[in-house]
Every structure is written in structure tokens, then in C-alpha cells.
UniProtKB/TrEMBL annotation:
Bilayer disposition of the protein: Multi-pass membrane protein
UniProt-recorded name of the protein: Isoprenylcysteine carboxylmethyltransferase family protein
InterPro entries xrefs: ICMT_MeTrfase (IPR007269)
Matching Pfam families: ICMT
Domain of life: Bacteria
Organism field: Pseudomonas fungipugnans
Length: 219
């Protein structure tokens, strides 16, 4: 296990709490696990949590950190707690819901794709992947592989995850919450890019010129 014990415990507790909120919102275990797509989503969540225990993600401020961007951490936390419960609850009371089991399965597929996209770059970056916006010791710019045309694949994964989570509950409210994640997400991206531009200069500018920030062909 490469992740620190404290972060490992946090990852496990957070995942279980997130699933617990969804089970509570939908009305209990029987209601939640009566849908195959939700069973798959729960198993995928646990699998992602186990996979995260073998990453080197950390909370190191490294050699230089943009401390002004720390506000995005509680912002993500608040949106996450609300997203854990509210889409499931609106599903239970049939408020602003749409579609049927097909939508749930589409959501499950997107959730898995988003999870893979979220974790893949974490393994690629290793110790350079910090929960803080920071330049780590020996930091090198990665511009190949999954980063070849997309500068923030892990953040795209977060967005796809959020949309998938909303769809497994057929929740319009969930989609609104997914859209709200763009606010701290884009703020963090701009902060990271400013730090990387200051660290790598022309090399980073050239990389930006041939790659997309978040969504290929759009942004």
C-alpha cells in the first residue's frame, strides 16, 4: 500500500459514507439494491476505493503551493455530501426524474468510465499527484500518453463520474449538482495552470497550444 494510512482511512470512510447517504436517500438497502445498475455502481465505487489505496496520492504542499486555491477542497466536500444524498432522495420521491432502467445503466457505465479516467492519471503521476495545487520536488511535465491531448484527464473523470452518478438515480437535480462541480473544478484548473506555467514556461505554453484543457474539442 503506497498511500498514507491516514489518507487510506479517509478514502474508505468517505466512500462508505457516500454510499450510505445514497442508500439512506433512496429509502434503505432493499430499495437501493433492487436496481442492478445501482448494485454495479456500488461495486464500482468499492473497486475504485481499493484501487486508490495503491496510488501515491498525497496532500503535500511540495516546493511551492497556491494556498489561495484551498477553498476548492471544502467546496468539493459540500457538493459531494449533497450529491451523495439528494439525487437518491429525488429518485425516491420521483421529483424531477426522467427515464427508466436504461438511464440508470447509462449512468453506471459513465460512472465506471469516469472512475477509470479519474484514477489512471493518478497512477501515471505518482507522488506528483497532490490534493493541493503544488509543485513537488523533482516535478516533471507529463505530456504523453493520456496527457497527450488533454491537460486535465483526471478532472474530466470527476465530471463524468458526477454525471454518471446523477443518471443512475435518473436525477435532474443530480445533473445540476454535477454542473456545479465545474465552479471549483475550473478554478482549480486555472490555479494549477498558472503554477505550471510559472514552473515550466515556454515548454508548458507549447503544450497548451496543442492540447485541450478539459473537454476535447470544446474547452
Amino acid at each position: 500500500m503506497k498511500i498514507s494510512a491516514r489518507l487510506a482511512v479517509l478514502a474508505v470512510v468517505s466512500s462508505l459514507a457516500y454510499l450510505g447517504l445514497a442508500v439512506w436517500g433512496l429509502g434503505g438497502f432493499a430499495a437501493f439494491f433492487s436496481h442492478g445498475a445501482l448494485v454495479v455502481t456500488a461495486l464500482a465505487t468499492l473497486a475504485m476505493t481499493v484501487a486508490s489505496l495503491f496510488t501515491e496520492v498525497n496532500l503535500s504542499s511540495g516546493e511551492r503551493e497556491d494556498r489561495d486555491n484551498r477553498w476548492v477542497i471544502p467546496a468539493f466536500g459540500i457538493i459531494g455530501v449533497v450529491s451523495g444524498y439528494l439525487p437518491a432522495y429525488t429518485d425516491r420521491i420521483d421529483f424531477w426524474t426522467f427515464g427508466g432502467e436504461g438511464v440508470r445503466w447509462l449512468g453506471a457505465v459513465l460512472f465506471i468510465i469516469g472512475g477509470a479516467l479519474r484514477l489512471w492519471p493518478v497512477f501515471v503521476l505518482g507522488k506528483r499527484f497532490s490534493g493541493l495545487v503544488a509543485i513537488q520536488p523533482g516535478h516533471q511535465l507529463v505530456t504523453e500518453g493520456i496527457y497527450h491531448r488533454l491537460r486535465n484527464p483526471s478532472y474530466l473523470g470527476v465530471l463524468v463520474l458526477a454525471v454518471g452518478w446523477a443518471l443512475v438515480f435518473r436525477s435532474g437535480v443530480g445533473l445540476v449538482l454535477a454542473a456545479l462541480t465545474l465552479i471549483p473544478l475550473i478554478a482549480r484548473i486555472h490555479s494549477e495552470e498558472a503554477l505550471l506555467r510559472g514552473q515550466f514556461g515556454a515548454q508548458y505554453e507549447a503544450y497548451c497550444a496543442r492540447s485541450w484543457r478539459l473537454i476535447p474539442g470544446v474547452y
